[in-house]
């Protein structure tokens, strides 16, 4: 596709429910990232995938958060037993593989999650 | 934890004026990037400056990097109402390829027509 897409764009859920957020990266981008942005805050890294390597989960705030990437393309971020503090905009990004950390990241429009 | 910290937190200027935003970071880096975010949604990459570069230009944007002071600045010249957005600096979490980025809290720029 032309860019990174995410769905849904908005999600309202009740505390304790599970939610799944989807990300479609740019075709050919082997690196995929999930970030979270709380109101008025910068972006917080959650997890990233690179090719077929095991994902780096070091940014996940709790074991209620998990993510998978199927077929090296689409990724799903799952939040179990949602809490009100999970309310945020969840942003997905993808990038080409480039050494040395010189990776421009392309972001999707985000999913705004509201936990009531 | 936040690596970059932008200054000021908010900036309001008249159309046509220049806007300068600053970023400080804590650890050694090999590059620094600036992103723009409109309406609290997706970010758009503006410019990347490598650690061996001191200044870089892209259209109306000028970025400087001072690795000795661990700081960077973004200058937008001849600002337009469409430049109204939040601007973030970002640095690599590690030096390995495709590392995640660490973002500051951003500067909210308002350009008044």
Features:
heterodimer, A: 116 residues, mainly beta, six-stranded mixed β-sheet, four-stranded antiparallel β-sheet, 0% helix, globular, B: 113 residues, five-stranded antiparallel β-sheet
Detailed description of the structure:
The complex is a heterodimer of chains A (116) and B (113). Chain A is mainly beta. Helix content of chain A is 0%, strand content 46%. Chain A contains no helices and ten strands. In chain A, a hairpin with a 5-residue loop joins strand 6 and strand 7 (75-79). The relative contact order of chain A is 0.33. Chain B has strands spanning 5-7, 10-14, 19-24, 31-37, 43-50, 55-58, 61-66, 71-76, 85-92, 101-103, 107-112. With 113 residues, chain B is an all-beta fold. The mean pLDDT of chain B is 91. Chain B is globular, with a radius of gyration of 13 Å. In chain B, the strands form two sheets. In chain B, strands 2, 4, 5, 9, 10 and 11 form a six-stranded mixed sheet that branches. Chain B has a five-stranded antiparallel sheet with strand order 1-3-8-7-6, with no helix packed on it. Helix content of chain B is 0%, strand content 55%. Chain B has no helices and eleven strands. Chain A binds chain B through residues 4, 30-31, 33, 35, 37, 40-43, 45, 48, 50, 56, 59, 89, 91, 93, 95, 97-110, and chain B through 2, 4, 30-31, 33, 35, 40-45, 48, 50, 88, 90, 92-106.
């Amino acid at each position: 596709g032309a860019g990174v897409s995410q769905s849904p764009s908005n999600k309202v859920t009740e505390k304790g429910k599970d939610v799944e957020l989807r990300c479609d990266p740019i075709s050919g981008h082997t690196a995929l990232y999930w970030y979270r942005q709380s109101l008025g805050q910068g972006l917080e890294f959650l997890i990233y995938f690179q090719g077929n390597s095991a994902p780096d989960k070091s940014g996940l705030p709790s074991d209620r958060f998990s993510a998978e990437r199927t077929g090296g393309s689409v990724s799903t971020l799952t939040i179990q037993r949602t809490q009100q503090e999970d309310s945020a905009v969840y942003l997905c990004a993808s990038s080409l593989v480039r050494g040395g950390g010189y990776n421009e990241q392309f972001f999707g429009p985000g999913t705004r999650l509201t936990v009531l | 934890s936040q690596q970059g910290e932008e200054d000021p937190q908010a900036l309001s200027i008249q159309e046509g004026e220049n806007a300068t935003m600053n970023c400080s970071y804590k650890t050694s880096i090999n590059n620094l990037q600036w992103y723009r975010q409109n309406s609290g949604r997706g970010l758009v990459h503006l410019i990347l400056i490598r650690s061996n570069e001191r200044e870089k230009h892209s259209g109306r944007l000028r970025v400087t990097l001072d690795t000795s002071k661990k700081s960077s600045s973004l200058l937008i010249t001849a600002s337009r109402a469409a430049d109204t957005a939040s601007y973030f600096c970002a640095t690599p979490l590690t030096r390995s390829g495709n590392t995640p980025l660490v973002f500051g809290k951003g500067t909210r720029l308002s350009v008044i027509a």
